[in-house]
């Protein structure tokens, strides 16, 4: 179990609703972050659960964003030693600033799951005595403590009040464009905290110059959260109830000096923590690729990268019922899809051994199949192409114009049925191996056609991708010659291709018209399946009434007592569809893995399908 401070019930609900937090996935995500840090020679980071969880929460549990944020957090800090190094709270000048309380977190939040309110009062320090860097250093100390202690801040974000009373032109002149850029980058790109709003009160003349300079460096989302109230505190109360504010602001939170004094004690108690902090950061000499230094981060030519999406996702719209299922069961959040797709493409660009399709519709199949775990999606894409490359007899030279391929297509060995049991129900696949002659066709030829149908439904069928698939295996007319084609190695290839090497989710499998000898092959298949998939197998013998208890007869072809199209019509429609995909299948031969370029041990047919030991089982649902 992760070693985390328990959240209150309201904050736990907010974390689930707004940050997509799944307690059962935290341990896996934390392990993934630590594993990634172990492979990043340039980052020396804290790795305790509480610290790393802050980045997951600040990135709405997107592992890729959390990694990017963690890297930038330490990169920016390393590039700003004047703000985040040598922070001894007992150093006399710094202690003076601490006791002034230029910035203080207010003790109360508007609701139990509300953001932390930070009151910033630059007018209380003398700009002729203290530099803005010294003031900001104090601010980083206060922020570090809150990041360590304050769950409201981490989960609900922060709300700022900037009181500009007693600010003079000397204060504003300390804000050079370079410092402004450093400060905004530190608080925006280099921080896991979420800014929920900023309120400016008691604004003097000249404020607009600095305000507009700050705004120019902020992204659109943060710009929309800025509010200027002038000297009108009633306007502020519309956003922040006066009961939250110190007595000096007409509120009930007590005198401001009491809050400042309590924080001064707290900061001093963290003396050893701040000393430890100096050992963490980045070593840009060890960074793969181009180093990030102060000039590249804060140079004013051009603006720094904004993490705001700028391209539209090219996806087929899904029905309302499937949208709800994708959200509820697969953790799909439309506002995050673009970012997750970009993360997958960036990973593929850095993975020399994989040559993959990178269009949105293809990649989103893996996100949905992995319930939007980016790490699992990467693993699944890698295995998808690794397995396919290792079985060219099934995945290469799939030209539907070849007469032998067309013969098998016309037999209708494997067919997706046209109807589903509701708008958000799984796709039903009917498989009839007894219709092909094992003396004329090998099992490899038959399965090759099956992979072609599978590829098409992966691309076209939202019910299949989101709701999964239910299989019916009709063993009527299957002979011992059919069973003898299923060698243990071939069975292992098949189960690996359909389980580890596929993003599709199996929701059940029904066996009907089972002949003598079925148990031998059935038990062989079961031995290679995960426990979850084994529990979804049903054997009905020749009793179709038992099948109807799971799959309504109206969904089945006429030949099975159903009300759907005939097998002949379904087969003819699929023949046309497969032929229309000819160019796609010819293109497919260019995709796969080049194991010579894989970092680490290559994945070959022998290592993937060799019968010594079992392969790793992935729970894909």
From TrEMBL:
<feature type="domain" description="CRAL-TRIO">
    <location>
        <begin position="398"/>
        <end position="568"/>
    </location>
</feature>
<dbReference type="InterPro" id="IPR011074">
    <property type="entry name" value="CRAL/TRIO_N_dom"/>
</dbReference>
<dbReference type="Pfam" id="PF00650">
    <property type="entry name" value="CRAL_TRIO"/>
</dbReference>
<feature type="domain" description="CRAL-TRIO">
    <location>
        <begin position="91"/>
        <end position="257"/>
    </location>
</feature>
<dbReference type="InterPro" id="IPR001251">
    <property type="entry name" value="CRAL-TRIO_dom"/>
</dbReference>
<dbReference type="InterPro" id="IPR036273">
    <property type="entry name" value="CRAL/TRIO_N_dom_sf"/>
</dbReference>
<dbReference type="GO" id="GO:0016020">
    <property type="term" value="C:membrane"/>
</dbReference>
<protein>
    <recommendedName>
        <fullName>CRAL-TRIO domain-containing protein</fullName>
    </recommendedName>
</protein>
<dbReference type="GO" id="GO:1902936">
    <property type="term" value="F:phosphatidylinositol bisphosphate binding"/>
</dbReference>
<dbReference type="InterPro" id="IPR036865">
    <property type="entry name" value="CRAL-TRIO_dom_sf"/>
</dbReference>
């Amino acid at each position: 179990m992760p070693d985390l401070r328990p959240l209150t019930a309201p904050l736990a609900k907010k974390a689930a609703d707004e940050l997509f937090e799944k307690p059962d996935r935290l341990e896996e995500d934390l392990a993934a972050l630590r594993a990634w840090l172990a492979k990043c020679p340039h980052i020396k980071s804290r790795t305790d659960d509480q610290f790393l969880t802050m980045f997951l929460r600040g990135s709405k549990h997107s592992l890729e964003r959390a990694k990017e944020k963690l890297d930038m957090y330490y990169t920016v800090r390393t590039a700003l030693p004047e703000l985040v190094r040598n922070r001894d709270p007992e150093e006399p000048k710094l202690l003076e600033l601490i006791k002034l309380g230029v910035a203080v977190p207010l003790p109360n939040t508007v609701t139990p799951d509300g953001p932390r309110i930070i009151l910033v009062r630059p007018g209380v320090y003398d700009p002729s005595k203290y530099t803005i860097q010294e003031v900001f250093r104090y601010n980083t100390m206060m922020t570090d403590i809150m990041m360590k202690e304050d769950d409201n801040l981490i989960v609900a974000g922060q709300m700022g009040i900037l009181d500009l009373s007693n600010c003079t032109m000397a204060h504003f002149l300390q804000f050079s464009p370079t410092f402004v850029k450093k400060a905004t980058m530190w608080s925006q790109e280099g921080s896991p905290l979420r800014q929920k709003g900023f309120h400016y009160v008691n604004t003097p003349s000249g404020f607009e110059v600095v305000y507009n300079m700050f705004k120019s460096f902020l992204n659109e989302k943060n710009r929309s959260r800025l509010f200027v109230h002038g000297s009108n505190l009633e306007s502020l109360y519309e956003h922040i109830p006066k009961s939250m504010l110190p007595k000096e602001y007409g509120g009930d939170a007590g005198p401001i000096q009491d809050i400042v004094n309590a924080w001064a004690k707290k900061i001093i108690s963290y003396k050893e923590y701040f000393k430890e902090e100096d050992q963490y950061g980045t070593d840009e000499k060890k960074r793969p690729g181009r180093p990030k230094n102060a000039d590249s981060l804060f140079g004013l030519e051009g603006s720094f990268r904004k993490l705001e999406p700028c391209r539209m996702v090219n996806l087929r719209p899904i029905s309302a019922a499937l949208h709800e299922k994708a959200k509820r069961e697969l953790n799909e959040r439309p506002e995050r899809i673009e970012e997750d797709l970009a993360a997958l493409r960036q990973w593929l660009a850095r993975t020399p051994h994989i040559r993959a399709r990178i269009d949105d519709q293809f990649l989103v199949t893996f996100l949905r199949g992995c319930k939007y775990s980016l790490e699992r999606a990467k693993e699944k894409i890698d295995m998808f192409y690794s397995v396919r490359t290792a079985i060219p007899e099934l995945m290469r030279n799939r030209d539907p114009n070849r007469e032998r391929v067309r013969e098998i297509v016309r037999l209708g060995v494997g067919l997706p049925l046209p109807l589903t049991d509701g708008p958000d129900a799984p796709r039903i696949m009917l498989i009839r191996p007894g219709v092909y002659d094992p003396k004329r066709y090998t099992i490899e030829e038959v399965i090759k056609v099956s992979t072609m149908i599978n590829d098409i439904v992966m691309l076209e069928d939202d019910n299949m991708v989101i709701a999964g698939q239910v299989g019916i295996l009709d063993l009527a007319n299957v002979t011992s010659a059919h069973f003898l084609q299923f060698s243990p190695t071939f069975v292992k290839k098949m189960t690996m291709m359909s389980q580890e090497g596929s993003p599709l989710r199996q929701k059940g499998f029904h066996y009907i018209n089972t002949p003598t000898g079925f148990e031998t092959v059935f038990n062989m298949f079961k031995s290679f399946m995960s426990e979850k998939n084994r529990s979804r197998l049903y054997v009905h013998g020749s009793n179709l009434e038992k099948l109807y208890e799971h799959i309504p007869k109206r969904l089945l072809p006429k030949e099975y007592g159903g009300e759907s199209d005939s097998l002949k019509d379904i087969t003819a429609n699929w023949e046309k569809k497969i032929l229309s995909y000819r160019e796609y299948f010819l293109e497919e031969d260019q995709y796969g893995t080049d194991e010579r370029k894989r970092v680490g041990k290559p994945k070959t047919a022998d290592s993937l399908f060799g019968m010594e030991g079992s392969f790793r089982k992935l729970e894909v649902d």
